[in-house]
Amino acid sequence: MIRINLLPHREEARKQRRTQFYTLLGLVALLGGVVWFVGHTLIGQRIDAQESSNDFVKREIAVLDKEIAEIKRLQEQTQSLLSRKQVIESLQSNRAETVHIFNELGKQVPEGVFIRSVKQSGVRINLLGYAQSNARVSQLMRNLDASPIFEKPELVEIKAADFNRRRVGDFNLFVSIERAPIEDSDQNKSAAKEPAK
145, 151 in Cβ contact below 8 A? Predict the structure, then answer.
């Protein structure tokens, strides 16, 4: 029987396998490094692009915030101007009101009634005075209610008092002024300007 020594052949096969293993290990490590580098580069680019987008959005938000602040400032100015305009329109529409009030009071105050104080607060007028009797105060309230300028007379109180050595009724009453709203008068003006269809 022939004996063949396979030890060198086996040793050679082991060396080849070891070489292949180290070669594959090196290739896998190289491939892993390449994958890591490409992944890191791509992720870095994505992060840079996202940061660039975020910076752009922040700049645009800052610009919009400035514009919003400007818009708020303009709205406040507009509101201020509108309120001034309304005050001026109110003053313009009611500038002759005092004259009308006193003329109408002169017409509506019956004989035997003496008005000693007139105070206006908005559309309400407070009348203080003396009357020869309670009936005269009632007549004054009916006259004010029937007036085209006044409405809703309200008697607060009437009490006995002495005036010029005579016994009189000291009265306190409120009456409202009947005003047309400013918007209605503006609408009526615009309606009057439009031609009839």
Answer: yes
Can you give the residue range of the structural domain that contains 70?
53-93
Residue 175 in tokens: 């009456």
Is the pTM of the predicted complex or chain greater than 0.70? no
Question: Does residue 75 lie in a domain region?
Answer: yes
Q: Tell me if 136 is assigned to some domain.
A: yes
Per-residue pLDDT of the chain (197 residues; tens, 9 = 90+): 666 666 677 788 888 889 999 999 999 999 999 999 999 999 999 999 999 999 999 999 999 999 999 999 999 999 999 999 988 887 776 666 777 777 777 777 778 777 788 887 777 888 888 887 777 778 777 887 777 777 787 777 777 777 777 787 788 888 887 765 545 445 444 444 554 44
For the chain, what is the domain count? 2
List the CATH number of the domain containing 153.
3.30.70.2830
The pair of structure tokens assigned to 169 is: 């009724």
Query: End of a domain among 61, 93, 125?
Result: 93
- 47 exposure class (CB count in 10 Å sphere: 0-12, 13-18, 19+): exposed
The helix-helix angle for 182-193 and 7-93 (nearest 10°) equals 90
